UniProtKB/TrEMBL annotation:
It comes from Rhodococcus sovatensis. One of its GO terms (molecular function) is catalase activity. Residues 21-31 have a biased composition (Polar residues). It catalyses: 2 H2O2 = O2 + 2 H2O. The chain holds residues 5 to 542 of 721 of the full protein. Residues 28-417 form the Catalase core domain. Belongs to the catalase family. HPII subfamily. Its cofactor is heme. The lineage of its organism: Bacteria, Bacillati, Actinomycetota, Actinomycetes, Mycobacteriales. Its EC number is 1.11.1.6. Decomposes hydrogen peroxide into water and oxygen; serves to protect cells from the toxic effects of hydrogen peroxide. Transmembrane segments: none annotated. This is Catalase. Residues 36-46 have a biased composition (Basic and acidic residues). Residues 1-48 are annotated as: Disordered.
Amino acid sequence: PRPDQSAPAPVGPTGSHDSRAQSGDFLTTAQGVRVPDTDHSLKAGDRGPTLLEDFHLREKITHFDHERIPERVVHARGAAAHGTFESYGSAKTVTKAGFLANRGRTTPVFVRFSTVLGSRGSADTVRDTRGFAVKFYTDEGTFDLVGNNIPVFFIQDGIKFPDVIHAGKPQPDIELPQAQSAHDSFWDFVSLHTEATHHVMWNMSDRGIPRSYRTMEGFGVHTFRLVDAEGKTSLVKFHWKPVAGVHSLVWEEAQIAAGVDPDFHRRDMADGIKAGAPLEYEFGIQVMPDDGTDTFQGIDLLDPTKLVPEELVPVQPIGKLTLDRNPTNYFAETEQVAFHTGHLVPGIEVTNDPLMQARLFSYLDTQITRLGGPNFSQLPINRPHAPVNDMLRDGMHQTAVHTGLAPYLNNTVDGGEPEVAGANDHGYVQTERVIEGRAVRANPASFDDHFTQSTMFYRSLTAIEQDHVVEAFTFELGKVFEQSIKERELAVLANVDTDLCERVAAGLGLPAPAGTPMEDVFVSPALSQIIDTPGPIA
Ligand code: HEM
């Protein structure tokens, strides 16, 4: 094999930092020149002025001036930890991915938890969706599962992502966040784009205010396609189940914590790890047949606003995640880590879900701005733990010193045949699939049912949990200034559950509207059965 041309120094045992950053006993400049005094600038006389000639002053201030990078456009507020994933081997029946298929195999991971809308300095316990992003450093390359703590999403097509985020981010004129102002745009958006209803139901439930990262579920949200060693495919949903169980705050606790300790979640994670109490989750999959329809019992598996109830397809455990090591440096690791839904390994493929398709474009694109050019996969936290031998060259912040004269394949200059891997040699060979149809800007009719799963979710809650949902809607909609927006959201709730709508309307002092008949909308019979059956169905 040709030499490994582009990997910088291998990742050390900590997997995370480059010790060359700080070495030697003396304080030096960036050029390694020892410094006699770092508290006084070079002045003309002891009363100044300061001399431009002071290279130590200039370097120190200049570097400081450029310490900040743009925060993430979403999920800016986050905290992370290192750990290990151990496979149970049970997924071997559906995937050839080595880190899942081999029983007992351990894979290093880095996991970043986040809120979606707040800025880097915002509070942890606000009502929001939580990011649950996992980087698996597998020996077949890096796999990222960039998930959330809510199993569905606001929108069905990624082209609306800038819109839903613009609607939810702080008010553009005075930058007050949603819940603290009469800021109407979030409720305006979700009452107009009713496919958001299911996600909003989860946000307004206790799931929107988790007690701790260690008591949160995680979901891959989209349907993925797994491929086994024989090339047989299955459709799956990924799940993280916290070993400590699912627990939430109550609203009063969340509000107090946001004021008294805005770092409540990151402190809990860091202190727990330091005290020897790792965060633990079981990894699981729901497996559906890949029969060419991309649906299961009437549920469109390409619609990210829909889940597959566990009553219909149980979650099978396939491994365990343990987070037991805090980062060494927040900036180097937590801030610079770059997750991407397109970081896939052989045995794990994507589906046609139009939300996922847009994500496949977005992450690398945004990171080129956020991390200053195209070479951020060379940063220690982003380096694969598999050998890298790409043909990517030069660019801003290139740190690899590439050798050879022919950065292209085939070549006869550097000698040797191209070493390309097929499916039997851990190569990533996409499963062939038929793609046909007219180019259209439209959703399939199977995306039209916006309410059945919202109803199912609400009716699955206990009476106390339902009370919390009613109180959350009443509180949040109570902050809305425009009455027509409140009325439109009440009309949405009328389609979810009459009792829910009436109780929120009463809380707002408004009349409760009637639901809109949805005769033309296809509803999965399996879901109707779950809604109509008290308790879990067989
Ligand atoms: C960041 C999850 C939809 C664009 C993130 C992060 C998570 C996440 C967990 C934080 C990653 C980190 O910790 O660094 C999700 C989920 C989605 C979703 C579960 C839907 C199922 C989308 C869509 C788009 C998008 C549709 C765009 C079309 C972004 C961008 C970032 C981000 C630009 C910032 C990445 C960075 O700066 O490194 N997302 N997201 N997301 N997401 Fe998503």
